[in-house]
Amino acid sequence: MDKMEFKPYVPADSTMREFTFKALLIGVILACILGAANAYLGMKAGLTVAATFPAAVVAMAVLRPFRGTILEENLARTTASVGEALVAGAIFTIPAFVISGVWSELRFFESTAIMLIGGVLGVLFVVILRRT
Asked: What's the N-to-C CA distance of the chain in angstroms?
């Protein structure tokens, strides 16, 4: 068989913008909105949905008028998806601490620290895997 030469959509030597304030801001706003919706759905119905697809569509729609690049759209989508995943993890584990008696009451600062540490460790783990 003939081997086709792989040509990436965005070349490695490209100077396309990726990590910008507007992409990060849109991602954080989408993470808050979709995370809140997912938290409500998870606590009410006991299941969550992936926020990747709506975040991708909204990021694309919002960034196109501002001449956003595909890399900025990817950053906004990924930020929203990670924020939603942290909320999904929190709504199932933190109530379990209270129900099982590990915590006698809901602890805000400990809960926030657990979510922040989990998010940072997740990012670091992905960076390590990406580099290998």
From this structure: 29
DSSP string, 65-107: GGT--HHHHHHHHHHHHHHHHHHHHHHHHHHHHHHHTSSSS--
Residue ranges with strand state E in the chain: none
Model confidence, pTM: 0.82
Chain centroid to CA 119: 9
| Max Cα distance, the chain (Å) | 65
- What distance lies between CA 32 and its chain's CA centroid? 10
Report d(CA 81, CA 60) in Å as an integer: 14
Query: pLDDT above 70 covers what percent of the chain?
Result: 97
Rounded Cα gap, residues 84 and 91, in angstroms: 11
